[in-house]
């Protein structure tokens, strides 16, 4: 069982939904457990996935996922960040990305990279 964390900033949520729709075969066919920040999780659920929803990002969702990464409970992170917007919880976002590097967890921050990464699951 592989756990994938899915996160998208508001400006990138449509791209995340598109990514989930385009990659259903891989993401549904594998033994994959999906966790997500609150609003991203709700959209992931609406796209037909079973998902564990954590808090919304600005309320601590990124920090919750970061903690799971630190505990060795996450195998891959797909985080469509919006580089053109400001985020009040930027420290949490950097913490999450830093912990991916600390613990050598694959991190995709855009659809092109995410597409390549999930091919590694096949
Ligand atoms: O803010 C986020 C990531 O930093 C995402 O949070 P939501 O999925 O709750 O919108």
Can you describe this structure in just a few lines?
The protein has 122 residues and is of the alpha/beta class.
Mean pLDDT: 96
Which kinds of small molecule does this entry bind, naming each only once? Answer: 1,3-dihydroxyacetonephosphate
What's the Cα radius of gyration?
A: 13 Å
Q: Which fold does the CATH topology refer to?
A: Rossmann fold
CATH A-level architecture: 3-Layer(aba) Sandwich
Query: Count the helices. How many?
Result: 6
Quickly count the domains: 1
Give the number of DSSP strands: 5
Report strand order across the widest sheet. 3-2-1-4-5
- Choose one word for the global shape: globular
Sketch the topology as an H/E string, one letter per element. EHHEHEHEHEH
Structural class: alpha/beta
For the record, give the distance between the C-alpha atoms at the N and C termini, rounded to a whole number.
13 Å
Give the DSSP E fraction (strand runs of 2 or more residues).
15-25%
The main β sheet shows up as:
5 strands, parallel
Task: Return the CATH class.
Answer: Alpha Beta
Helix content: 40-55%
Folded structure, characterized:
The model has no long low-confidence stretch (mean pLDDT 96). This protein has 122 residues and is α/β, with parallel strands linked by helices. The protein has a single domain (2-119), classed as Rossmann fold. It is globular and about 35 Å long. α4 packs parallel to α5. The protein starts with a strand and ends with a helix. Helix content is 47%, strand content 18%. The chain has helices at residues 13-22, 24-29, 38-46, 61-70, 90-102, 111-119, and strands at residues 2-8, 32-36, 51-53, 76-80, 107-108. It contains six helices and five strands.
């Amino acid at each position: 069982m592989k756990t994938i964390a899915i996160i998208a900033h508001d400006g990138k949520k449509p791209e995340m939904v598109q990514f989930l729709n385009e990659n259903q075969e891989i993401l549904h066919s594998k033994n994959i457990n999906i966790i997500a920040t609150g609003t991203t999780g709700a959209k992931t659920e609406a796209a037909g996935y079973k998902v564990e929803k954590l808090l919304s990002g600005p309320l601590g969702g990124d920090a919750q996922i970061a903690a799971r990464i630190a505990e060795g409970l996450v195998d891959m992170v797909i985080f469509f960040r919006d580089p053109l917007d400001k985020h009040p919880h930027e420290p949490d976002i950097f913490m999450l990305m830093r912990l991916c590097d600390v613990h050598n967890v694959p991190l995709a921050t855009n659809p092109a990279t995410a597409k390549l990464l999930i091919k590694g699951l096949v």
